[in-house]
Amino acid sequence: MLTRSGHDYEPLCQRWRELAQANGWACSVLAEAGGYPILQIDHVPENGARTSRSLHRDPSSIYLSAGVHGDECAPVWGLLFWVEQHAEWLSRRPFLLFPCLNPAGLVHNTRHDQDGTDLNRIFHDSSHPVIRSWQAAMAGRSFSQSICLHEDYDATGIYLYELSRQTSRGEGLIRSCEDLIPRERDGLVDGREFISAVRHAVEDEILMIVGEELQGGVPEAIYLFLNHAATSFTFESPSEFDLARRIAVHRRFLDVVTNPGYLGDGSER
What percent of the chain has pLDDT over 90? Predict the structure, then answer.
């Protein structure tokens, strides 16, 4: 349960550092931005391969991130609370996690970073210091899935971008979460067509999306899908709903997306 402002970054960092230390995970500073550290949490299981090549081919390896837009605070806390609950499960597999990629934006409740940049349109741009550091951290890695958590000020329900090279899981994922917050009913989100709150795109469609819809901008999820992840999910909650419900729905989404056999009973894997 969150007992302070959702935009309070220092205690967020402190809890992540304590969590990493308690579980033997590597916690480092990816970069400094606007006077704040961007934390990176990295883990290789004790019985896992220690060479980077074999590690990054591990089919259980996952990527998790939140807070690339600072005015979207529920994902940041939802990710923390979920990891706290499932630390034992996570410790059995390799993962790379960024708790908040835009701390200055979080503190000041703004979408953009301290320089007015929307980071989620420049993940291809190594001239930006944070993105350059992020790309270096990603070098040589591959993941079975990447999960990016977001919110949408204009949304009236939850929705999902799913980039994959296989059959869509989107409908089942949304259905498993909509008892907490209903799914978005509008078939157009930011001018883009969704089917029952899911937009499923395959590899051949991605360059068209970047060129025609994003005017050349490359979001985190698309960069991950094209370069590092077999499947990439971006989950969105409506930011005008109650904060506790939004945090809860992000926790639920993480439950179901990381565990295809999830039955909603909250049990450990």
Answer: 76
